[in-house]
Specification:
The chain starts with a helix and ends in a 6-residue tail after the last helix. It has a five-stranded mixed sheet, sandwiched between helices. Strands 7-6-8-5-9 form a five-stranded mixed sheet. Helices cover about 35% and strands about 20% of the residues. It is of the alpha/beta class. It has two domains: about 140 residues, D-Maltodextrin-Binding Protein, domain 2, CATH 3.40.190; about 90 residues, 3-Layer(aba) Sandwich (D-Maltodextrin-Binding Protein, domain 2), CATH 3.40.190.
């Protein structure tokens, strides 16, 4: 590449990702269901902007609690659209920066049961344990409970639910055999045998919103990260992982 071409590329990057000329690091709080995608996006972000990214993964509610307690996160990738709005209302996030970066899907998953007729399996309830994420802190856990209620199965599974502190732990319960069934994020089990996509009408949409947190308001890497999430390269990775994007 000639010097002139290199300067042109640098200029274009500066327009697309303000602040890319001086490399910074952004600390991103990421909902557990999006962990694998975030890790895949990280090197693409660095390649596109020159900035680095560090992640902290947990359930959306746990991350929000940490944010309210002063955790130094600069960007918040939640698994719902409520807590980013709360963060803005509480002056913990920057107004006007919230947007939906992904729309999640719920799946029934098992490593030991044939789910060819998944609805029948669920309705039969002939299992000892059904793993879900904590519905109080994890939107996918709340969607799981909404699904059971929509199917009229709340009472049937009342004594069989095993709660993970995050959707990742719920999946681990199934993978380890501690639970025969799990209601997990579809992105976690995409392409795996033993997964069945839950019809979206059985639960509220899982809109996953991002926000620039107050701690990152003056960090060009934080603003660049949010811009990158909307780029064609990032959207391609997000949709390939089984999420919808508006």
């Amino acid at each position: 590449m000639t010097r002139r071409a290199a300067l042109a590329v640098a200029a274009l990057m500066a327009v697309a990702f303000p602040g890319a000329a001086r490399a910074e690091t952004v600390l991103v709080a990421v909902a557990a269901n999006f962990a694998d995608v975030a890790e895949e996006l990280a090197p693409l972000f660095t390649e596109a902007t020159g900035h680095a990214v560090r992640h902290s993964f947990a359930a959306t509610g746990q991350l929000y609690t940490q944010i309210t307690q002063g955790a130094p996160f600069e960007v918040y990738l939640a698994a719902d659209d409520e807590r980013p709005a709360w963060a803005v209302a509480g002056d913990l996030a920057v107004e006007g920066t919230v947007f939906t970066y992904a729309i999640g899907q719920l799946a029934l998953y098992s490593t030991s049961i044939d789910l060819a007729d998944a609805t029948a399996v669920l309705r039969a309830g002939e299992v000892d344990h059904l793993a879900i994420a904590d519905p109080e802190t994890a939107p996918y856990g709340r969607a799981a409970m909404e699904t059971l209620e929509a199917l009229g199965l709340t009472e049937l599974y009342a004594g069989k639910i095993v709660i993970g502190e995050s959707i990742t732990q719920a999946l681990q319960f199934v993978a380890s055999g501690s639970a025969e069934l799990g209601l997990v994020a579809a992105s976690q089990v995409q392409g795996k045998a033993g997964a069945w996509l839950i019809p979206s009408e059985l639960h509220q949409p899982i809109r996953q919103d991002a926000a620039l947190l107050a701690a990152g308001a003056n960090n060009p890497a934080a603003r660049a990260y949010l811009a990158f999430l909307r780029s064609d390269a990032a959207v391609a990775v997000i949709t390939a992982a089984g999420y919808a994007v508006e």
